[in-house]
Amino acid sequence: MHGRECVRACFPGAMRLANAKWPASAKMCAVLAKEPLSGGRRTVLDWTMKTLLVPVDFSAVTEKVIEAALAQAKAFRGRVHLLHVIQPPVVGSGEFALPVEIVEEAVNTNKRNALQKLDGRLETFRGAGIECSASTVVGAPDFAILEEAAKIEADAIIMGSHGHGRLYDFLVGSTASGVIKRTKCAVLVIPPADKHG
């Protein structure tokens, strides 16, 4: 037995993974969970991803993230949970502090707008016959994503990267790297469109 036959016989889930239609720009940044499901050595069978968490921020990379999630959900007959994280506005202190009512209204407006946008995305998945749900949360993006992943017992997180650059990531940090460092499930990071091409 050689090549595909060997892979097919030893790791049935591998063929679905290999044959999935991934966007050309997709890069697997953290494929393996930190704790193997098979009690020792990780196998391709452990990669079966049925529950996908898909954080979206409605930036330019969102379309590519949705495409990747759709391909993954189709390949593994999985379900998708879309998440939009709303960062609370900076409140300030002393005479520069924003009134609580203004902060609450800004957050509520952002939630309503996000839910409207998520409704359109839900239809994309449902139209393809994929079970899909959505939610919004308020907080720091990386921690909110990790908390939601644990809550829904996600097998994988499919998210975008903004490609701010190394200096920005060093000074501020990126949401994707924060998630990758702390998660216990697989992460697929979709890079932004090439700025030079």
Features:
about 200 residues, alpha/beta, Rossmann fold, 6-stranded mixed sheet, 7 helices, about 15% strand, disordered N terminus
Describe what you observe in this structure.
With 197 residues, the protein is of the alpha/beta class. The protein has one domain: Rossmann fold (3-Layer(aba) Sandwich), CATH 3.40.50.620. The chain is 43% helix and 17% strand. It contains seven helices and six strands; from the N terminus they run ααββαβαβαβααβ. It has a six-stranded mixed beta sheet, with helices on both faces. α3 links the parallel β2 and β3. α1 packs across α2 and α5 crosses α7. The chain is globular and about 55 Å long. The N terminus is likely disordered.
Please give a quick description of this structure.
Residues 49-191 form the UspA domain. Belongs to the universal stress protein A family. By secondary structure, this protein is α/β, with parallel strands linked by helices.
